[in-house]
Amino acid sequence: MFKEIKERLKSYAKEIRALKDKRKLSNRGNLQLSEIESKINQLKYHFRHIHIAFCEIRGRKREEIEKPSIHNPANQSYIDKIKKEIQQKIEHESIIRSSQTGS
């Protein structure tokens, strides 16, 4: 499960870097700069919150993960939702493993 999350974060990071390269007019093609910036901001938002949830599940404190500006707080309800989904997947995988070893 954790490997899956790390791969998703790596994928987001690669996509963000690729989109940042497309900001230059010569690399943009027929995309509008506003579309590129919007997509970058969406990916960064999801990356940040998944990263926070992942680190907290692994035992890190928020202060160890990030020190955001008072004007840029994390969306705690979104983090809680992600953590709940991760924990449900971990429990599901645990049930599957225990049923496989029990048979």
Q: Total number of helical segments?
A: 5
Largest sheet: none
User: What is the count of structural domains?
Assistant: 1
On the 0 to 100 scale, the average pLDDT is 90
Low-confidence stretches: none
SSE ordering: HHHHH
Estimated radius of gyration: 18 Å
In short:
The chain has 103 residues and is an all-alpha fold. It is 78% helix and 0% strand. It is extended and about 60 Å long.
Q: Your description of this structure?
A:
The structure is a single chain. With 103 residues, the chain is an all-alpha fold. The protein has one domain. It contains 5 helices and no strands. Helix 1 packs antiparallel against helix 3 and helix 3 crosses helix 5. The two termini are 23 Å apart.
Keywords:
mainly alpha
Topology readout:
Layout: H1 2-21, H2 25-28, H3 33-57, H4 62-65, H5 76-102
Helix pairs in contact: 1-3, 3-5
